[in-house]
Amino acid sequence: MNNIHIRLADWQRDNADLQRIREAVFITEQAVPPELEWDAEDAGAVHFLACEGDYPIGTARLLTDGHIGRVAVLKDWRGLHIGAELMKAVIAEAERRGLQRQFLTAQVHATAFYERLGFTIVSDEFLEAGIPHVDMVRQSQ
């Protein structure tokens, strides 16, 4: 576990790894329909990969407006703070790009995780792909 690092990913070059992780977490585990998982935003997004050595185990993406999404860590690596490190890298990149306001749509069960990273719930609960979600926002200092 001491060889975990986060790196920027390229949608074209790293596509197989990005898709493998998101398919495992969202499509297989959470039964999100593939047509809802893949969208036109991927091509222009900044993607991130969390890797153990050379093996990608987590991902996230940042859109040009500060929207963070598609945060996923493979099941066998959960509980090891990889998601937090991944999110810290995304937030740092957003701030580096001048995006002082970051926002996301969080699965309700994960709201405490995002609150620890400075996000606040700003909506009522709603269903997305059949899963309860809320909107959350973080304002950089």
Automatic annotation (TrEMBL):
Task: Please tell me whether the keyword Signal is annotated for this protein.
Answer: no
> InterPro entries under this entry?
Acyl_CoA_acyltransferase, Bact_Acetyltransf, GNAT_dom
Q: Does the keyword Manganese apply?
A: no
- Which key words tag this protein in UniProt? Acyltransferase, Transferase
Q: Which organism is this entry from?
A: Serpens gallinarum
Protein name, entry field: GNAT family N-acetyltransferase
- Domain spans labelled N-acetyltransferase: 4-141
Q: Which Pfam families match?
A: Acetyltransf_10
